[in-house]
UniProtKB/TrEMBL annotation:
ANK repeats lie at residues 56-88, 89-121, 122-154, 155-180, 218-250, 251-283, 284-316, 317-349, 350-382, 383-415, 416-448, 449-481, 482-514, 515-547, 548-580, 581-613, 614-646, 647-679, 680-712, 713-745, 746-778. Transmembrane segments: none annotated. Residues 1128-1202 form the ZU5 domain. Residues 849-860 have a biased composition (Basic and acidic residues). Pfam families: Ank, Ank_2, Ank_4, ZU5. This is ANK.
Length: 1202
């Protein structure tokens, strides 16, 4: 081999021979070689050619590069010297600088675009020359700038070969490390092991710095690499040099695992001969036998079994090598395992047998082998699924036929009662459905919820399956638990073809659920106009009502489905039909501000004068809700602006109380009586004064309202505003000459009222406006005496200096009775279509009990409701749970405990039936930085499944149906759980197997979910009749989400690639536990103290954690002074540690503030009030506030405001 130095041909004698000629060019070259920059510049100023060369082709750039004169090189390059000029032997300046090892010159030349892969005579490259001379830094630089170490000389030598020949170990390392492909560069010894390069490996191992057990970033040693590629020679060398044959890389992967996985039988033998542990397990329990069986390497399997590998070794999830072979359809491996007496029916922790796995993957050959070896064809997994269920779900028709041939039970049921026909029907596998029916599968077999295969096919929109089932005798009107038929389901989903098909086969168009909902009601709610039209064409009645008396037109009005409403009206629906509490569709449309529906109803002669049970007309509702467009239209249709409710309140009263200035103006423009009095004498001005609506009062005055109208008890607006401490309204009334001396029938002046309530600012304002502090009430009280009795120190100090009348000090037996002005105690309307109370947590919360208490107030949205905590809290405030509903909750909980498939899959939990739950052979692929180059296997094989992507036939783990589990809608009307079931997941898809403890309220007291931060109170009396559990949208800790039932949802099209090694498919319905969590209640720090009011009580009950408060917060509390009240039980301070209050006279009454729910030290006070006053919101006294939420309530009959 010619050396690179010989190839340069630039020896000094050549130059000396040229020097003898004595011309100027040689002098120039000599000056350049000697590094004489001044002479070089002088020559260049003359006529000397910068590229002139000697007889060997060496020019000034070549010579200065060889000698390392960086300044002259820079000058020559700046003056245009040819950087690619070559000597007679083809060497450029870069060749010469690389041979000389001048890194700075090499760097300068490369920066000036010198070609790094140019080849000289005999194929020498700059990299080759640097490698030959052992210039490792130059080698590294050239490689990093694109130099190719694959370019060989004419006699076949590469840079690596010449480095090895010359014994340049450092250069060898650099070359090998840069030869690693991928984002992660492997160390030199690993590359040598990969290439089976004995010479390089041997040379590298001579350097003690190269550890034979050195690790990559992934933790693999050179022996792992050699095992992967089956490089016996290097492996033998490594072992002889002390390589650890049982070295554990990440996830405890040993070289034997790697060799077994890749079928390197000779390598397996070599490792075993060198004392490799045959049953070593990875972090997830995979043994070498698992790896080889999964990959189908029967020779390795045979070797391992012959050498004593445990045939029933299990992973942490219970998978045996036979499960692995069944998954990969490796019949020869399975046969070997069975020959060595591997149990044919071994089960995983989820009770999956190898036959389950073979059925899932559609591996007919292996399944037949297992069946021939007498495996159980009806083995049940933890959720009750048999291999036949799984094959039906995965559309493995050949496996289905095989299982039926071997006696698999066609009527086997899962925990939720699903037969194979249920599964196939839902999934839409037509051939399997036909095969099952031909084998006498019953199409009418019910699940535990009473659903037949026809129900499930309808829910999954499987029209062809519906047709097959009906043609084979399926009952078209089969009833599920809530008496729903397949037609109800099809109507909700809006599938016209399915609806038509069912009706053509005799489905009852007027079939009713338990709550008397017909398919037409459901179509009206969902806005499915085409479905509604088909139903009406087939004789569906538009006049049928639910248990609460609502027609389809009511429901269409509520949800603003104008097309359905128009269709119903065209078909003769009565626009004035009255439903619950006398509500007409126009009332409902007005409340929900569906102006288009309201206008449609009016165009169809709906009466704007219809009154609800409490006397409200649609205009009352529009006025209260500030629905300007609807109110304007109602007035245009001659709605009476002075219509009165049962208590005598007009729309103007409601608008004034709510502060809707534009609405007030609109009503007054249409001749509404500005001074209209309710039955108790309240005028709109009184209500504006009560709520501090000065803007409304200005409009009322503009239209001629009196300033001092009196109620029946003699209260003027000034009395009212003084009582409630509305300082702005007091100032407005005084500016409009309201009488400060006006008295009520009890002789109270506005000053009396302000003093009684402790409003010191109002007292001062009244005194400035010449209010008499000496005025005496009928019972002989002055403002000062009242303030003294109630302990308002600041008020007493203000009045003491101006009051002349002296009073005798009252005795302890004297009692003072607080007097309050009249308030609007109007009942509101409820359009709740909730039938029969509260059967599931997704049902509506109906209003307070009482024949005349009907509430239409609810959250801003109708359905689906806002399921955030704030949205649910607002909804719950307005809809307290009744005792009847609570009893139904208990019944529902009992059902849920019996049928745990009520639970929805929690996305935080992996599929229970994931065959390899993280069984890995290398670091998780989810770690950042993992790449194909980071693996010993030459690909992204961070887990066992990734190692198999290139040749796997099917997935190993069974993924849940990717049905894009939708959020459950909180439906506040149709309580037969229909919609909730449609938006639930597949009934056999509860693959999450929750592993959390039950926490319920029992006799020992409150048990709160761990980690929620709530205390346990073991001293509580028996609460055995009360259970609290978390529900979707209400569980603030977001620990669990509940399904109302075990219903199904169709699988989406995107099922994932068959190359995914572990497709997480649904096969479980495991029992799950329920979480108890209290709401995330936070006391507002804005007030010095907060008062909770409770009524008298009886019996024993408990307000569950999701019970809303029974009164909405409707007005802003004020705070001043210190209120003392003999009827208060007790007050206490709470901080971040929480606290509890317990009544001394009535021990059953208690208040609990959980830890961390008070953002700052806060005073909580509780006092008794009379039960009769709780039907309506009570006015707040000084220092009182409404709590944001009631945490706990008991016993029966106890009610709280707040």
């Amino acid at each position: 081999m010619s050396t690179a130095e010989e190839a340069t041909g630039d020896s000094n004698p050549d130059l000396r021979e040229s020097d003898e000629e004595g011309d100027g060019n040689n002098s120039f070259l000599r000056a350049a070689r000697d590094g004489n920059l001044e002479d070089v510049l002088e020559y260049l100023k003359g006529s000397t050619d910068i590229n002139t060369s000697n007889s060997n082709g060496l020019n000034a750039l070549h010579l200065t590069s060889k000698e390392g004169h960086i300044k002259i090189v820079e000058e020559l390059l700046s003056r245009g010297a040819n950087i690619e000029a070559a000597t007679k032997k083809g060497n450029t300046a870069l060749h010469i600088a690389s041979l000389a090892g001048h890194l700075n010159i090499v760097s300068l030349l490369v920066e000036n675009k010198a070609k790094v892969n140019v080849q000289a005579q005999f194929g020498f490259t700059p990299l080759y020359m640097a490698a030959q001379e052992g210039h490792s830094e130059v080698v590294k630089y050239l490689l990093s700038n694109g130099a190719s170490q694959g370019l060989a000389t004419q006699d076949g030598f590469t840079p690596l070969a010449v480095a090895l020949q010359q014994g340049n170990e450092r250069v060898v390392s650099v070359l090998l490390e840069h030869d690693s492909k991928g984002k992660v560069k492997l160390p030199a010894l690993h590359i040598a092991a990969k290439k089976d390069d004995m010479r390089s490996a041997n040379l590298l191992l001579q350097n003690e710095q190269n550890d034979v057990n050195g690790e990559t970033k992934s933790g693999f040693t050179p022996l792992h690499i050699a095992a992967h590629y089956g490089n016996i020679n290097v492996a033998t060398l490594l072992i002889s040099k002390g390589a650890d044959v049982n070295f554990r890389a990440k996830n405890n992967i040993t070289p034997l695992h790697v060799a077994s996985r890749w079928g390197k039988d000779k390598m397996v033998t070599l490792l075993l001969d060198n004392k490799a542990v045959i049953d070593e397990k990875t972090r997830d329990g995979l043994s070498p036998l698992h790896c080889s069986a999964r990959s189908g390497h029967e020779m390795v399997v045979d070797t391992l079994l012959e050498r004593g590998a445990p045939k029933s070794s299990t992973t942490k999830n219970g998978l045996t090598p036979l499960h692995m072979a069944a998954q990969g359809d490796h019949m020869d491996c399975a046969r070997l395992l069975l020959y060595h007496k591997a149990p044919v029916d071994d089960v995983t922790v989820d009770y999956l047998t190898p036959l389950h796995v073979a059925g899932h993957c559609g591996n007919v050959k292996t399944a037949k082998l297992l069946l021939d070896r007498k495996c159980n064809p009806n083995a049940r997994a933890l959720n009750g699924f048999t291999p036949l269920h799984i094959a039906c779900k995965k559309n493995r028709i050949k496996v289905v036929e095989l299982l039926l041939k071997y006696g698999a039970s066609i009527q086997a049921t899962t925990e939720s009662g699903l037969t194979p026909l249920h599964v196939a029907s839902f999934m839409g596998h037509m051939n399997i459905v036909i095969s099952l029916i031909q084998n006498n599968a019953s199409p009418d077999h019910p699940t535990v919820r009473g659903e037949t295969s026809l129900h499930l096919a309808a829910r999954a929109n499987q029209t062809d399956i519906i047709r097959i089932l009906l043609r084979n005798g399926a009952t078209v009107d089969a009833r599920a638990r809530e008496q729903q038929t397949p037609l109800h389901i099809a109507a909700r989903l809006g599938n016209v073809d399915n609806v038509t098909l069912l009706l053509q086969h005799g489905a009852n168009a007027d079939a009713v659920t338990k709550d008397l909902y017909t398919p037409l009601h459901i179509a009206a709610k969902e806005g499915n106009e085409e479905v509604a039209s088909v139903l009406l064409d087939h004789g569906a009645s538009h006049g049928l009502t639910t248990k609460k008396g609502f027609t389809p037109l009511h429901i269409a009005a509520k949800y603003g489905n104008i097309k359905v409403a128009s269709l119903l009206l065209q078909k003769g629906a009565n626009p004035d039909v009255q439903g619950k509490n006398g509500l007409t569709p126009l009332h409902v449309a007005t409340h929900y501000n569906h102006s288009n529906v309201a206008f449609l109803l009016l165009d169809h002669k709906a009466s704007p004068h219809c009154t609800a049970k409490n006397g409200y007309t649609p205009l009352h509702i529009a006025a209260k809700k500030n629905q300007m467009d609807i109110a304007t239209t109602l007035l245009e249709f001659n709605a009476d602006p002075n219509a009165e409710s049962k208590n005598g309140f007009s729309p103007l009263h409601l608008a004034a109380q709510e502060g809707h200035t534009d609405m007030v103006s609109l009503l007054l423009e249409h001749k509404s009586n500005v001074g209209a009095k309710a039955h108790n004498g309240l005028t709109p001005m009184h209500l504006a004064a009560q709520e501090d609506k000065v803007n409304v009062a200005e409009v009322l005055v503009k239209y001629g309202s009196e300033i001092d109208p009196q109620t029946k008890a003699g209260y003027t607006p000034l009395h009212t505003s003084c009582h409630f401490g509305q300082i702005n309204m007091v100032r407005f009334l005084l500016e409009h000459e309201a009488s400060v001396s006006a008295t009520t029938k009890l002789g109270y002046t506005p000053l009396h009222q302000a003093a009684q309530q402790g409003h010191v600012q109002v007292v001062n304002l009244l005194l400035k406006n010449k209010a008499s502090p000496n005025a005496v009430s009928n019972n002989g009280q002055t403002a000062l005496s009242i303030a003294q009795r109630l302990g308002y120190i600041s008020v007493v100090d203000t009045l003491a200096g101006v009051t002349e009348v002296t009073e005798t000090i009252p005795t302890a037996e004297d009692k003072y009775k607080v007097v309050s002005p009249e308030t609007m105690q109007e009942t509101l309307l409820s359009d709740s279509e909730d039938e029969g109370g509260y059967r599931s947590v997704n049902s509506s919360f109906v209003g307070s009990k009482g024949e005349d208490t009907i509430s239409l107030e609810r959250g801003e949205s109708s359905s689906p409701l806002d399921t955030s905590y704030e949205g649910m809290k607002e909804f719950q405030f307005r809809h307290p749970v009744t005792d009847d509903q609570r009893r139904r909750i208990k019944s529902e909980i009992s059902t849920a405990m019996r049928y745990p498939s009520y639970l929805q899959r929690d996305p935080d939990y992996e599929s229970e039936m994931q065959y390899f739950r993280g069984d890995t052979l290398s670091p998780s692929s989810r770690e950042k930085g993992t790449s194909r180059g980071d693996s010993v296997f030459g690909a992204d094989y961070s887990t066992l499944e990734r190692m198999d992507q290139s040749n796997s036939q099917s997935d190993v783990h069974i993924r849940s149906v990717d049905a894009s589990t939708s959020e459950l809608d909180f439906t506040d009307d149709f309580d037969d759980s229909m919609k909730k079931r449609e938006s639930a997941t597949l009934p056999f898809s509860e693959d999450f197997y929750l592993r959390k403890s039950v926490r319920a309220y029992g006799k020992e007291g409150v048990k709160i979910y761990p980690g929620s931060g709530y205390k346990s109170y073991p001293d509580k009396p028996s609460l055995s009749n009360a259970v609290s559990y978390s529900v979707e949208g209400i569980d603030l800790n977001d620990q669990f989400k509940f399904l109302p039932d075990d219903s199904v949802e169709r699988r989406k099209a995107s099922q994932g690639s068959s190359q995914d090694f572990m497709e997480r498919e649904v096969m479980t319905q495991s029992f799950a536990t329920y979480s108890q969590s209290a709401p995330d209640t936070r006391l507002s720090p804005g007030a010095p103290k907060k008062d909770m009011k409770c009524s008298s009580y009886s019996g024993s009950s408990f307000n569950t954690s999701f019970d809303p408060d029974n009164v909405a917060i409707e007005r802003t509390p004020t705070y001043s002074g210190k209120l003392k009240w003999k009827s208060f039980l007790i007050s206490f301070m709470v901080d971040a540690r929480g606290g509890a209050l317990r009544g001394r006279r009535h021990s059953g009454v208690r208040i609990i503030i959980p830890p961390r729910k008070a953002s700052m030290p806060t005073r909580v006070t509780c006092r008794l009030i009379t039960k009769e006053k709780l039907n309506h919101p009570l006015p707040l006294n000084e220092g009182e506030a409404l709590a944001s939420r009631i945490l706990e309530m008991g016993p029966v009959g106890t009610k709280f405001l707040g």
